[in-house]
Backbone:
């Protein structure tokens, strides 16, 4: 993720790109009463999150179309892609309902170039790319949990992080990697539970 995902994906406390409680609630599909509850910068941040969901969807599409994935792995990749599509749909709906304009999805070719898809030569290459993307999402959600005063919103962020962690774990299992040997491996820097 360090090379593939822009630093803006890491929505950690203390950074300039921190989501408000209302923005995280919207991301999770929780209804927000009005645009007044959303900080003006949240529309920009929600669009960054939407852009990254577009990226994840297209990364899985590139993997699916590569012809490099075995059937069982392809099925899981399509499932994970569907999860990201649900996140995308919730973001588009929330941004629109609150009067914002959702960022448009780029063409698949643009994502292929951005993600260096031409370097994907094996199933392992595809899985490594997806794992880096999922790890970044995990750490982003874990990074915002401490910013919430409302335990319900913290729980929503934790559930999203759990979803991304599940993706990361299954991808690493498919890569034949052992479970992380480090306790408290997620949500801290360095972001990789498998250093080195």
Residues:
């Amino acid at each position: 993720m360090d090379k593939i995902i822009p630093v803006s994906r890491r929505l950690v406390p203390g950074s300039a790109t921190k989501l408000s409680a209302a923005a995280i609630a919207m991301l999770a599909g929780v209804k927000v009463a009005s645009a007044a509850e959303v900080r003006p910068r949240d529309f920009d941040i929600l669009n960054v999150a939407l852009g990254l969901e577009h990226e994840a969807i297209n990364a899985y599409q590139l993997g699916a179309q590569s012809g490099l994935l075995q059937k069982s792995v392809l099925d899981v990749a399509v499932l994970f892609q569907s999860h990201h599509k649900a996140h995308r749909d919730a973001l588009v709906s929330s941004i629109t309902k609150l009067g914002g304009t959702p960022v448009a999805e780029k063409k698949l070719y643009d994502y292929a170039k951005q993600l260096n898809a031409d370097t994907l030569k094996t199933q392992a290459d595809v899985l490594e790319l997806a794992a880096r993307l999922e790890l970044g999402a995990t750490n982003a959600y874990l990074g915002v949990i401490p910013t919430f005063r409302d335990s319900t919103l913290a729980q929503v962020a934790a559930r999203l992080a759990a979803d991304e962690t599940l993706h990361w774990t299954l991808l690493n299992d498919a890569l034949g990697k052992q479970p992380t040997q480090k306790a408290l491996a997620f949500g801290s820097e360095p972001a990789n539970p498998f250093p080195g």
